[in-house]
């Protein structure tokens, strides 16, 4: 997660793998990756899943644990398969698949992540605006001013560097985990067990799971930070980088499964499908809806706080991936034209581009859930699930991972998530 440019041709260490032990920085990485995942997707997942009831959500819960861990592990291993220590995912794609394919996949990678950064501009503006109006009982400032102030605040943290970003993320995510768990427990007395007796037909059950997969993939996605994460594991641990990254990703997936799905179940058991439809139409997170729906000071205060912390912490990781993708596209095109870019000038351009584009979209306030379902989830699934599986069968450096049943599972769930977009279009 570095801001500074790194040397391009430092070769991967050749030390022999040895035992690895858990360190404090590993905990920070797990927290940071957790924070990347727990953003708008988590806060909108109950709204999507809640419209279909309890039992499809239970089936989705069984799938999500292995989906999250195995897919992110495969993507990290793909980044670590490069011969060059400092390669990010855009460099690895070009190294393994050639210039043309590398350019194409780099563009897809960027457009899988960039809209998420735009979503967070919308989400943070709506969350703070809703808090000002409904909880503080104030008149909100003009949307253009509110959105610009929030975006500049988030971008200033990213521009301060890796250590500042990790510290701010830690500051946000620890309370986020505690409050998320506390709210999940707090909602238990409001559970309506009638949802257990509403069993959908087999067709509705399967279709619901299928259509929920893109939102599910987005909700647990921390792939934008995986490239930087894997690169720094190799810098710090050399030949032990794969084992170290596997361990950290396993802890992250376990944390997500326990804390997030408990929260989602608590939300599902508290509201009716009609209320979830109303929340979707208002284009706000489930916690902001709770704060507005229930006359309860605890939910009214903590709901928007959780939403704010989740969106801000997740913005950091997704901005890293989008910045990396844009830098890769520009550098590739510059090399094709026979010149090299100036790193400092390129960084300034990228920062200004993101500030302006996120600000404009936040002012227009498009449908967040619609973007997730129709575009972002399938694109992420293609990069996160299918690209590493293809590399395992085509790239010699990845051949050692062939023959595992987990590859079949990752491929099947990835295809299902990608194909959901076609159903959405036809529907």
From TrEMBL:
<feature type="transmembrane region" description="Helical">
    <location>
        <begin position="247"/>
        <end position="271"/>
    </location>
</feature>
<keyword id="KW-1133">Transmembrane helix</keyword>
<keyword id="KW-0812">Transmembrane</keyword>
<dbReference type="Pfam" id="PF03222">
    <property type="entry name" value="Trp_Tyr_perm"/>
</dbReference>
<keyword id="KW-0472">Membrane</keyword>
<protein>
    <submittedName>
        <fullName>HAAAP family serine/threonine permease</fullName>
    </submittedName>
</protein>
<feature type="transmembrane region" description="Helical">
    <location>
        <begin position="53"/>
        <end position="76"/>
    </location>
</feature>
<feature type="transmembrane region" description="Helical">
    <location>
        <begin position="370"/>
        <end position="392"/>
    </location>
</feature>
<keyword id="KW-0997">Cell inner membrane</keyword>
<feature type="transmembrane region" description="Helical">
    <location>
        <begin position="97"/>
        <end position="122"/>
    </location>
</feature>
<feature type="transmembrane region" description="Helical">
    <location>
        <begin position="205"/>
        <end position="226"/>
    </location>
</feature>
<feature type="transmembrane region" description="Helical">
    <location>
        <begin position="172"/>
        <end position="193"/>
    </location>
</feature>
<feature type="transmembrane region" description="Helical">
    <location>
        <begin position="298"/>
        <end position="320"/>
    </location>
</feature>
<feature type="transmembrane region" description="Helical">
    <location>
        <begin position="142"/>
        <end position="160"/>
    </location>
</feature>
<feature type="transmembrane region" description="Helical">
    <location>
        <begin position="28"/>
        <end position="47"/>
    </location>
</feature>
<feature type="transmembrane region" description="Helical">
    <location>
        <begin position="345"/>
        <end position="364"/>
    </location>
</feature>
<dbReference type="GO" id="GO:0003333">
    <property type="term" value="P:amino acid transmembrane transport"/>
</dbReference>
<feature type="transmembrane region" description="Helical">
    <location>
        <begin position="404"/>
        <end position="426"/>
    </location>
</feature>
<dbReference type="InterPro" id="IPR018227">
    <property type="entry name" value="Amino_acid_transport_2"/>
</dbReference>
<keyword id="KW-0813">Transport</keyword>
<feature type="region of interest" description="Disordered">
    <location>
        <begin position="1"/>
        <end position="22"/>
    </location>
</feature>
<dbReference type="GO" id="GO:0005886">
    <property type="term" value="C:plasma membrane"/>
</dbReference>
<keyword id="KW-1003">Cell membrane</keyword>
